[in-house]
Design brief:
Strand content: 15-25%
Structural class: alpha/beta
Strand order of the largest sheet: 1-9-10-12-11-2-3-4-5
Shape: globular
Length: 473
């Protein structure tokens, strides 16, 4: 189906891209539906995000639709921190190749598909250990995938490619692809019928084996955290906190909302060592579209409340121009910047700072343990929807040439470089102390023990982002 031909309503409102008014004259311009606001639980006031005792070995990422493309980007960018991923109706890392047309034609635009698996893996290979964490981190990690057989927005072939990609890098994949589901995030609390595609894109499916409603969250949370305590089916005892995203750089200029949410179980607020899940909504699932329905219907918090798991819900926002993101999607095709799919990307960087802040109160022994030598070390850092409303859809007249894959260089761009002991680097604000070790600010690379005996050279590649180098120029 051509993206500019008249589409069935359910698909027309979910077209991928950055400009709804993208179709040529004579064709119907798809319009976003008016999302019904539901009565949902709201946090009372916006506060500063706090730090907790997060176990660095239990940090994961999840997402639906545009968030289902963004989650693998976040995972591959920071695979030393994120130990696995749960992806609903998304696709491979860097699928769009920094091209709107590729996003539409190959990655799920109005149900269109063309494999971007090979260029995606080329991108990962070329950037591994540079703008992406080493891809070897993926080996042995656990990944959950969901794709409905009736999803006409992001074809199962797209998710099949993601399965192949994760398996190629050694991940253990669990794939739910037999449910007759439309495009959406599956949950027992979803308010949309399993085979339907409509706002708020939170669907509920009957268990194929019988026995009531399926609980996909239980499936992947068990994969990540092991045997779970029974979930809280009543009033949650934890707190849904409305926090300030602008403190981390979020603004209209990067299509991120001023506030997001974090669910914190009472045990975690009291200092218990807890896991962390970062969950990305999809297009047309912003606060202005559906309030907090993504939070309250996702089915994560009920398990988190009784299993010591913090859940971070960052939020994107609609943007008509500069950047053009009229459906409030996460940046998975380059509407904000060309580095959108790696750790130098604006949105990835902003969300990662939130993760670092949440993990700031950790006290567990980091992994891997640095080698105790006096020389600098480059040991990796300690493990410290589109139904989602798929992305808006432009209709370019000609498919632009994808931006060439950036190749890591041995000498990154430098805003300054400093060689001194780890204690001095920490005092100067170029690193921070965690469990007795110094970690480079921004990159989170492990510099070794935080004392005056360990010497490290830190290069500032972007404001506030430092990486370990063998020596300063």
């Amino acid at each position: 189906m051509h993206p500019c031909r008249p589409l069935p309503f359910a698909l027309a409102v979910l077209c991928l891209g950055v400009s709804i008014a993208g179709c040529s004259a004579g064709h119907t311009t798809p319009q976003a539906p008016q999302a019904a606001h539901r009565s949902t639980r709201h946090a009372q006031s916006v506060v500063e995000l706090s730090s907790y005792n997060v176990n660095p070995n239990k940090v994961y990422v999840a997402g639906i639709s545009s968030g289902g493309f963004f989650a693998p980007q976040m995972h591959f960018a920071h695979s030393s921190v994120f130990k696995g991923a749960a992806v609903y109706a998304g696709g491979v890392e860097y699928c769009a190749q920094d091209s709107e047309a590729t996003a539409i034609d190959d990655c799920g635009g109005a149900g269109l598909y063309g494999s971007e698996l090979a260029p995606s893996e080329s991108y990962i290979n070329a950037n591994s250990g540079g703008s992406l964490d080493p891809d070897a981190n993926i080996s042995g990690q656990k990944v959950y995938l969901w794709s409905g057989t009736d999803d006409d927005t992001v074809p199962q072939k797209s998710m099949n490619d993601l399965q192949t990609e994760y398996q190629h890098y050694g991940a253990t994949v669990t794939y739910d692809n037999d449910y007759p589901a439309g495009h959406g995030w599956e949950s027992p609390y979803g308010t949309v019928a399993c085979g339907t595609t409509e706002s708020p894109y939170m669907i509920s499916c009957n268990n194929l084996s019988g026995g009531g409603t399926y609980d996909s969250e239980k499936t992947w949370l068990t994969l990540f955290f092991g045997t779970l305590n029974a979930k809280n089916t009543g009033t949650l005892t934890g707190s849904l906190i409305n926090f300030d995203q602008t403190a981390f750089g979020a603004s209209a200029s990067n299509s991120m909302d001023t506030n997001g949410y974090v669910f914190v179980p009472t045990s975690c607020a009291g200092g218990t060592s807890c896991g962390l899940v970062v969950a990305f909504h999809g297009c047309l699932q912003t606060q202005s579209d559906i309030g907090t329905d993504f939070v309250t219907e996702s089915g994560i918090d009920q398990w988190a409340d009784t299993n010591n798991i913090i859940v971070l819900y960052p939020y994107a926002v609609h943007s008509e121009t500069n950047p053009s993101n009229p459906n409030g999607c996460w940046d998975w095709w380059g509407y904000d910047d060309a580095n959108y799919a790696n750790k130098n990307g604006t949105q990835i960087g902003i969300v990662f700072k939130m993760v670092q802040k949440l993990m700031g109160g950790s006290s567990a022994t980091p992994t891997p343990t640095p080698v105790p030598t006096g020389s600098p070390t480059s040991t990796p850092a300690p493990t410290p929807t589109p139904h989602a409303t798929p992305t808006p859809q432009p209709t370019p007249t000609a498919k632009p040439t994808p931006t060439p894959t950036p190749t890591p260089t041995s000498t990154p761009t430098s805003l300054g470089c400093w060689t001194t002991n780890n204690y001095a680097q920490t005092v100067a604000g170029r690193a921070y102390e965690s469990y007795g070790y110094a970690l480079a600010d921004g990159s989170n690379q492990n510099m070794g023990l935080d004392n005056v005996y360990y010497m490290t050279s830190l290069n500032e590649t972007s404001p506030g982002y430092y990486v370990i180098v063998s020596q300063c120029p």
